[in-house]
Amino acid sequence: MSAAPVAPADAPAPATGAFVLDTDLLGPLVVPDGAPRAAELEALARRVTLYASRARGDGTRRTYRSAWRHYTAWCHALGREPLAADPDTIAMYVVRRADDGCAVSTIRVALAAIRTAHLLASIPLDLRHPRLALVLDGITRATGLRPRRQAAPAVPDILRRLLATRPDPATALGARDRALLLLGFGAALRRAELVGLRRDDVETIPGRGLHVRVRQSKTDPHGKGQTVAVWANPAEPDFCPAAALDRWLLHRHQVADRTGPDAGARPLFCAVTKSGRPTGAPLSDKAVARLVKQAALAAGLDPTRYSGHSLRAGLATAAGDAGAGLAELMRQTRHKSTEVALGYLRPAELWRNNVTARLFQPAPGPDEQEAV
Fold first, then answer.
1. pLDDT tens-place string over residues 217-261
2. Which helix (H) or strand (E) holds 67?
3. How far is residue 201's CA from residue 223's CA, in Å, rounded to a whole number?
4. CATH top-level class for 156-350?
5. What element of type H or E holds 3?
6. Least buried of 20, 61, 83, 222, by fewest C-beta within 10 Å?
7. Which architecture, in CATH terms, is 2-143?
8. How far apart (Å, rounded) are the C-alpha atoms in residues 191 and 290?
9. DSSP strand E in the chain: where?
10. Backbone angles phi, psi at 97, to 5 degrees
11. CATH 1.10.443.10 domain residues, the chain
């Protein structure tokens, strides 16, 4: 974050006495009457920049910046000051977003971005102000807490269809894509975790499978790190994370960065040129989403229903269908919230020992009873 006297391109010229604080997190913030505090704000910017950036992941930063831009544009259209810490202005904006059909969860993200902007500008803002809290509570009661739209899970049958659309596994691109899909599924990785793996983060355990170390994640922002195990599937080599990784490493090891003191810290998955040569350059998390959507489209599925999260959701859903318990699931997915993890188990639990089965399902015959 650095202070710079440059206003946002789509904003009106700063008022006399205003100060423009350029932030990495939210972009330029026009601080009203901030000119007399320019030195203080610049000093604050220098102290905060590293911590503010690392306190939020890339996806959250993009979301916050988008939400802040929308709020400032709305304020400017009404002649209001975005950084005025005015609960009435924010309450009006909340109502407008609700009228636009936004879910309560989306509105809360916008409020978090607004609060963060005020925090960066050292302007006190109380989102618990009675008028604002009353409006938000009323919207929640009127619209309800709409369930978040979940990506369709890439359960094993779907994952096999996605894998079948990838290029020849003998090619670098085909080998990489298969390893991304299978490792992302088996280790229940978020897309940022998947592309963030280093070469020495995955270890082959003979006779078992893989150890995958997740150094940092959404629920582990300070990087304590966690290791999960992924069993190999020798009975079905084309659906085996360990075999897929071995095939990819044959290509990955051809890159010049395979040697040197920091070779193990280089990205496990890297870009591949159109000519099929691995470059060693890291992938963005969006590459995982593009891969899943492209594979879904090629497999005849609706790509709008699938995303990078489909791999993680597929593992969790399949585990629930297979009768996994809550502790087992959370050990693999590394969920901190039991409520979120239970969401993957409930669909299967609805059918397990359901009383209507005794009413509507045919009773097992003598042979089936003996088998049971």
1. 676 666 678 899 999 999 999 999 999 999 999 999 998 887 777
2. helix 58-78
3. 13
4. mainly alpha
5. strand 2-3
6. 222
7. Orthogonal Bundle (1.10)
8. 11
9. 2-3, 19-23, 27-31, 202-205, 209-214, 226-231, 270-272, 278-282
10. -65, -40
11. 156-350
